[in-house]
Structures are given as C-alpha cells and as structure tokens.
C-alpha cells in the first residue's frame, strides 16, 4: 500500500438511507452508534457493527475522531471477514483515537450502496463526516495498516486535533447505595473545586490527561474546569449582551456559550455555537467548531443533548 495523502473531500451522501425502497418511513437512528453484532462475534469498546439505522450516527461520530469503515462480505469473500475483525482488533489498541465501523454487506447491503462500494473488502477513513483518503481496496497487511493509523494520528496531533471516541460499553464502579463510587484519581481536582480553586483543578486534571490521554473522566473534568476558569471573573449579563450585539463574533459567542453552560443551559450553549458555525467560515468556523467540541466533552459525549447537538453540527457543516 502506498502512503495515503490525508485531505478533506465532500461529505458522504447518506440520502439513500433516509427513504428505504418501497416508500417505507425513514428508520430512526438508535441512541448510540452500535448496531447489533453479527454472528462473527461481539464488538469491542471501539468497534461498532454498522447497520442501516446506525450509519448516520457512525458518520457523525467522525466529528470527534477518525472512523475506519471496513466493508466486507463473508459470503462473497471469506477472508474479508477476517480482515474486518483484524482492523477492529488493531483499532482497539489505540484506545479511542479511532473507531472501527464494520459494514457487513450480507446484512446491510443498503449501506454499501450508499457508500458506492464496487469491491470488497475496502477500507474508508472518515473525519468530520468526510473521507480523508481514497478508498483502500483489498486486505491491507497489519504493519501497513498500523503505519497508516500512526501517520494519521501524527498529522492530527500536529494540527491540534486530539479528540477521542468514548468506549461503547463503559462501566463504572458502583457502591452499596448504587451511586457511582468516587474515583480516587480525581480527588485532588475535586477538592480544589470544592474550595473554588479552579486553576488548581485545571492543573490536576491536566496532569491526569497528560499521563493517560485515554482517561475520559479526566478529559471531561478538564474540559469543564476550563469552562469555569474562562468564566470565573465574567459578568454573565454583560457577556450575553455582547454576544447578542455581535452574532458572528467568535470571542463573544464562545464566552456566552461558556456562561450558558455554567448556568446549566447546555442546550442553549450548543445551539449558540452551532449557529455560529453555520454563519462563519474558514478559521473562525474552525474555532467555533473546536470550542463546541470542547463543550461536548465537558457535558459528556454520550449525553442525549450532545448527541442531538452533534447532528445539528453536522447539518450546519454540510
């Protein structure tokens, strides 16, 4: 496999999936991107079996971090099934830097048609809802595929893109009262917040994230602590008035969105920034999008409000 250039192309057209043949009503996407697992085995924490119902959400999840779509068919190419499983196993090693989406043409032929697949197996790499490489046909050797992912990861890091997918089946320790147990790793940060030392909390969460970028709890804590840090000396009414007076001013709108979030109005914060993405372009649009992604992390990427806002963001972008 030759080295793949990573570039942004047009968004994937999923309109064919919105109205199934025969005039049936559109099928609704589930609350998580995971489809039902085929007989080939269960998915891992960062591997999803793509169905017609979940395809839209899988594509939208590439707004957070890259998605590797592997299209295969055990009936037409038995080795393609093994390849899809191998890609999923490799992606698991990156702990959320990538998500593997396995598309079985035997059970979801409509997805293959929407993707305009002409051969199997084939690998597509998506980011921001768009392919970032040409489709990669055939079975890619494990070492070459690993090199591809490392190259993409390095380029994203150089561009300041550090998003990670949340594990699809997270588990939390539960105490005797069925409340989540307090994780001792976060004790120092929580103590800092309890005494209103936001700067110390940011430093503690940052230390945890630096030590383990896959620590999603620390990443969420850091994102929220930074919101409090940005707003700790801000007058809410003044910030919102400034935003109302300048609907395309990125600084004013992002600060007002931070204020919305601290006041418990996440939906309003998300809507404000989605609209900002819609009416801006180039670097300003990128800043608005990146700020919104940060607020998603603060609230939690599996929160229903975040999932809805991601769909609105995808619509605003494409």
Task: Note the topology.
Elements: H1 15-18, E1 47-50, H2 55-61, E2 67-72, H3 78-92, E3 99-104, H4 109-114, E4 122-127, E5 130-131, E6 136-137, H5 142-158, H6 187-194, H7 198-211, H8 216-231, H9 236-245, H10 250-262, H11 266-279, H12 282-299, H13 304-317
Parallel strand pairs: 1-3, 2-3
Antiparallel strand pairs: 2-4, 4-5, 4-6
Helix pairs in contact: 6-7, 7-8, 8-10, 8-12, 9-10, 10-11, 10-12, 11-12, 11-13
Quick structural summary:
This protein has helices at about 15-20, 55-60, 80-90, 110-115, 140-160, 185-195, 200-210, 215-230, 235-245, 250-260, 265-280, 280-300, 305-315; strands at about 45-50, 65-70, 100-105, 120-125, 130, 135. It has about 325 residues and is α/β, with parallel strands linked by helices.
Description:
The chain has helices spanning 15-18, 55-61, 78-92, 109-114, 142-158, 187-194, 198-211, 216-231, 236-245, 250-262, 266-279, 282-299, 304-317, and strands at 47-50, 67-72, 99-104, 122-127, 130-131, 136-137. The two termini are 31 Å apart. The protein is an alpha/beta fold and 318 residues long. A hairpin with a 2-residue loop joins strand 4 and strand 5 (130-131).
């Amino acid at each position: 496999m030759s080295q793949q250039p990573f570039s942004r192309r047009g968004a994937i057209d999923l309109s064919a999936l919105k109205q199934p043949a025969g005039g049936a009503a559109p099928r609704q996407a589930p609350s998580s991107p995971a489809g039902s697992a085929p007989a080939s085995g269960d998915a891992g924490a960062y591997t999803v079996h793509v169905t017609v119902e979940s395809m839209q959400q899988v594509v939208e999840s590439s707004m957070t971090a890259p998605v590797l779509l592997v299209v295969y068919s055990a009936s037409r190419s038995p080795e393609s099934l093994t390849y899809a499983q191998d890609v999923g196993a490799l992606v698991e090693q990156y702990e959320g830097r990538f998500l593997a989406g396995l598309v079985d043409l035997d059970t979801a032929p409509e997805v293959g048609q929407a993707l305009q697949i002409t051969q199997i197996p084939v690998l597509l790499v998506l980011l921001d809802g768009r392919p970032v490489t040409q489709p990669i046909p055939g079975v890619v050797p494990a070492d070459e595929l690993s090199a591809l992912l490392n190259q993409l990861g390095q380029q994203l890091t150089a561009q300041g893109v550090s998003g990670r997918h949340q594990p699809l089946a997270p588990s939390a320790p539960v105490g005797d009262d069925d409340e989540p147990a307090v994780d001792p790793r976060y004790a120092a940060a929580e103590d800092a917040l309890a005494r209103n030392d936001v700067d110390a909390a940011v430093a503690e969460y940052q230390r945890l994230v630096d030590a383990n970028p896959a620590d999603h709890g620390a990443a969420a804590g850091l994102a929220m602590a930074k919101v409090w840090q940005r707003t700790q000396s801000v007058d809410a009414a003044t910030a919102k008035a400034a935003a109302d007076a300048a609907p395309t001013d990125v600084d004013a709108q992002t600060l007002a969105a931070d204020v919305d979030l601290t006041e418990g109005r996440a939906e309003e914060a998300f809507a404000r920034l989605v609209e900002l993405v819609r009416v801006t372009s180039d670097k300003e649009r990128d800043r608005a999008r990146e700020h919104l992604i940060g607020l998603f992390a603060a609230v939690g990427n599996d929160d229903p409000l975040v999932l809805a806002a991601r769909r609105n963001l995808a619509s605003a972008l494409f």
